[in-house]
Design brief:
By secondary structure, the chain is mainly alpha-helical. The protein is built from three helices and no strands. α1 packs parallel to α3 and α2 crosses α3. The chain is globular and about 35 Å long. The protein starts with 8 loop residues before the first helix and ends with a helix.
Length: 74
């Protein structure tokens, strides 16, 4: 969770990845994912340049949040 607040975008990206890898799914994690995804429309996810750290972080957080939300509805 500390990595989600790091000033470096790639560290935050990796923190989202790590949370997914370990199966983290808490309300605090979801809230942070929503914050990290803010500012990038989901329709843009497939067009984000691999070198754009901020948008990659937004995309990864948004996709994970969508995944967790869809699993919750099942």
């Amino acid at each position: 969770m500390r990595g989600l607040d790091d000033p470096m975008e790639w560290v935050r990206y990796d923190a989202v990845w790590a949370g997914e890898a370990v199966g983290l799914d808490t309300s605090a994690f979801r809230k942070k994912l929503a914050e990290l995804a803010q500012g990038l429309d989901p329709s843009e996810y497939d067009t984000v340049a691999t070198s754009d750290a901020k948008k990659q972080r937004q995309c990864r957080a948004g996709r994970l949040l969508q995944k967790l939300e869809s699993q919750k509805k099942k």
